Amino acid sequence: MLQRKLLLYTPQAHKAGYRLEEAVAAVLPEETTEVVRTMEGLVRRIKRPHNGLEVAVIMATGRKKLQELQSLEQMLESLRTILILPDADPRTIAQAHRLRPRYITDIRSDFQDVAAVLKKMLASPDLPLAKPPSF
Amino acid sequence: MVKTAMARVLIIDDDGLMCKMLSGLVLNRGHEATCAFSLEEGLEHAEQQNFDVVFLDVWLPDGNGLEVIPHLRALPSSPEIIIITGSGDADGAELAINHGAWDYVEKTSSISQMALPLVGALNYRQEKRAHKQPVALKLEGLVGSSPPLQACLDLLAQAAASDVNALITGSTGTGKELFARAIHRNSARALGNFVVVDCAALPENLVESALFGYEKGAFTGADKATSGLIAQAHDGTLFLDEVGELPENMQRAFLRVLQERSFRPIGGKREIKSDFRLVAATNRNLEKMAQQGRFRQDLFFRLRSLVISLPPLKERNGDLLELALYHTARLCKRQGLAPKGFSPEFLRDLSAYDWPGNVRELVNVLDTALAAAQRDSTLFPPHLPPFLRAKVARGSILMKPVNGNGGNGEDFQGRRLSPINEVRKIVLAQVEKRYLQDLMQQEKGNIQAACQVSGLSRPRLYSLLKQYEICPSLAAKQAIDL
User: Fold this and answer.
1) Cα–Cα 20 to 30 A to B122, which of B7, B61, B330, B416?
2) Is A123 on the interface with B (CB under 8 A)?
3) Residue A21: predicted pLDDT
């Protein structure tokens, strides 16, 4: 059985969240991904032993959510983080960089770039090939 | 010329005349001189007293002087090393500097020529002491007090106090990103962004847009202008992690950015300035890659203005316990657990393991141990991951002699046989150890010669010598005694 390597935080019933999950599912088997839908769920999960988790993909749907994530800075330290930001405002970007993400992208993206980065980060001969990004 | 305070100088040379001459040179300048005629004797003196300078011959009866430079520099007094080379030995001189020596003198030099590096080294130490102010660095997560780590922290302080490009090298898990963040946090740019570029994670077709950003309409899908990481690092720090993975065309483009401090987004018509400070990190040998044409030499020269080489965990003597305590406390706090203690056996096993994954591996092992311990208040060996316990157990068995009389079955009476793979490994280890002992005796502790005879690379030979606890200088002494 494949180990869960990816923690995916997408809010419930959010259009961009569905797009993100679809993009991730195209490159990673479902069994390797743990999905959480609430901030409380995210906090509960990263407080527990990581047990092989390597990467966290976190979608911040608004600046308030991004602000809440700041309190998780220390707990996210041992995970490589990909952040999905609500906008490209310099203040939003500055907040994002405090979490030292390995990659950031916009919520309006089709997330093919996220899929490509994830595939490279979690490179394994067992993983299926990714679709190329749409640039 | 600045008058220096009385210094202690150690001279390690098997040539009695050279020792006498250098002693006279040192005493005439009002300093103390101590002579040693072998590496073993010299190291003994160096460990017992604080020396400021060591004159060190290369070819000694019990080994190569260059190989003990890191050991001498790691001592509390961290003496400056002046290598004594043979006349006209340019390779020896280069090797000396590459190994961390302050300078070198040729055996045939005049007294005044030999005095110059001594005076220079002593002046340097005096000035360093005079200007050394304790700096309260923000070192969140950087735990330890071993000399190798302290040396790196001194360099961190230097890097933080300036804007020079810094290159952090070290094996995986040694804390390169932690150091990069500490440089940023302690620098004048601490209020700016700390922007991470994960060169290993970015697919080649994303690197350019991620670094430089793009204008609206620059390509299909670019429906609005987006700033890149170089722009986002303006007034802050740009951290290129695994810089050795940067594609060749991006190395060229990034070199231009370093030179001009400006760039053009994809599809853009004008140059944009970005004032960032560059910190790069790698676990590869960039110099070798540059020599082999796999990394741009001109970019490499730019990156290595200040190099911090992080030691592997096994070389940070004494830091293991401090790290284990710190990270266990942190993990317990994160998981809402009561603090845990360590049993002596748990610590014994942690100390016996090699830690190829360094501090990151230690943290993962502690995380696993806490999960296994659950509500237990003390951590015991069974809480450790099985792979670690197996490796430690194998290591301890290999150190014990195995009876050779297996033919008539006497040794196996009343004992269960181990699996044949285990027996093979034990026997192979015994043969390997015997070969290495003979090799070091035959070559009188000379590592270079031993590598040539055995066909082993230097790092591999050192690793095996350490594994079997074989001391080259001791083996050489045994050869002399035979």
Assistant:
1) B61
2) no
3) 94
